[in-house]
């Protein structure tokens, strides 16, 4: 049986006296109910359309005047607050303008005015005295340096955000599974506390060509030398009056053929005494039996110059590990390597041959990779940027990962999905909004990159590492300043950044509506 309404309830829409819940105060916002007519209700009941309409109107009036708590059960507290705030602004526009004025002044002085003046200046000549139209834009699109900057900026926008986001995603996912994940995140994020200037100086030293100074090449040469033989005495060479002469490819040949009757003396110089201080004393080779050829290779130098050229003195050092070849008619017939005392012995087939010291004995040591050369300077600088900003990406992605429902992941594992499928099919799609934020933020950041490129790239290869922000600086304040062309580059850089910013703002608005 339908329950008749209480006549004393008035415009409350017929609330039953006993609903099984404690009594609560009734407000205009809370009394908004759906309009509903019960076909079985008696004609005198209050649940008709008119009662519901009156109640909704009361709630709407309360929200509009800022006295109600909301606009009914269909609208939450947030909508009521927004409506109340809008009504307050409409009633007091002067107050709102006064609050906004300081921010508007700062924004106009630091953002709007520089943009407007740069646009104006881009249509003027170098000193700003005459109007040149689009000539500055035509110049920068035909200038080789600016075109290289465009190309490098494209590489930056594609590579740097992608690598930072990928590493941040990997670090965020993996650190969830280890107990020391927090410590690892701290270490990865720490470079963000270092300024671009300091990071540039650090990596300028890291990429030094000299392995004794540059960490990158010190590690690289260590690995290389582990698997490759190095020359024993790379700086050794004969004197001009020595019995050796230079040959093609860096080798040395004896001026005359050798015979088994007399030991061969092969003196060399050019080695700092400090490097040979640990070598054994040189020993004069004895005459061998059976027609064999013997000889000695040594450092023909004593500190202070108290030695006779071509003669082994007591203080002179042996050169061990040098390969000696016997050559007849352009063909190698025998080989030997000098011992610790510098002596060597060749078989009888070397009798009458010319001796050769191959170029491998004197090859310069491997000095690593030219990180800051024309080929690798841009990838090397991008590597330093990734070192700084991968932690930023990791922290944001880890925050998003904390909001991923664990029930979905566990259910997928229960259903037999592998860890890769859980990551690829569930985790990454759920993190798509966060990944979008990180990628777009880094894209805007790399479009304006300046500090690292200016500090890390040497003067000889700065042209190959050039980017738009650096080209803007060089054009405006370089050797031949042209602030008209520099302003044109600034306008183009602004036009490149604005679409990315608009994309980011639209995405944030879509997220706020959800």
Automatic annotation (TrEMBL):
<feature type="transmembrane region" description="Helical">
    <location>
        <begin position="426"/>
        <end position="447"/>
    </location>
</feature>
<dbReference type="GO" id="GO:0005886">
    <property type="term" value="C:plasma membrane"/>
</dbReference>
<feature type="transmembrane region" description="Helical">
    <location>
        <begin position="98"/>
        <end position="120"/>
    </location>
</feature>
<keyword id="KW-1003">Cell membrane</keyword>
<comment type="similarity">
    <text>Belongs to the binding-protein-dependent transport system permease family.</text>
</comment>
<feature type="transmembrane region" description="Helical">
    <location>
        <begin position="154"/>
        <end position="174"/>
    </location>
</feature>
<feature type="compositionally biased region" description="Polar residues">
    <location>
        <begin position="1"/>
        <end position="10"/>
    </location>
</feature>
<feature type="domain" description="ABC transmembrane type-1">
    <location>
        <begin position="150"/>
        <end position="504"/>
    </location>
</feature>
<feature type="compositionally biased region" description="Low complexity">
    <location>
        <begin position="44"/>
        <end position="62"/>
    </location>
</feature>
<feature type="transmembrane region" description="Helical">
    <location>
        <begin position="386"/>
        <end position="405"/>
    </location>
</feature>
<keyword id="KW-0813">Transport</keyword>
<feature type="region of interest" description="Disordered">
    <location>
        <begin position="1"/>
        <end position="77"/>
    </location>
</feature>
<keyword id="KW-1133">Transmembrane helix</keyword>
<feature type="transmembrane region" description="Helical">
    <location>
        <begin position="186"/>
        <end position="207"/>
    </location>
</feature>
<protein>
    <submittedName>
        <fullName>ABC transporter permease subunit</fullName>
    </submittedName>
</protein>
<keyword id="KW-0472">Membrane</keyword>
<feature type="transmembrane region" description="Helical">
    <location>
        <begin position="484"/>
        <end position="505"/>
    </location>
</feature>
<dbReference type="InterPro" id="IPR000515">
    <property type="entry name" value="MetI-like"/>
</dbReference>
<dbReference type="InterPro" id="IPR035906">
    <property type="entry name" value="MetI-like_sf"/>
</dbReference>
<dbReference type="InterPro" id="IPR050809">
    <property type="entry name" value="UgpAE/MalFG_permease"/>
</dbReference>
<keyword id="KW-0812">Transmembrane</keyword>
<dbReference type="GO" id="GO:0055085">
    <property type="term" value="P:transmembrane transport"/>
</dbReference>
<dbReference type="Pfam" id="PF00528">
    <property type="entry name" value="BPD_transp_1"/>
</dbReference>
<feature type="compositionally biased region" description="Gly residues">
    <location>
        <begin position="63"/>
        <end position="77"/>
    </location>
</feature>
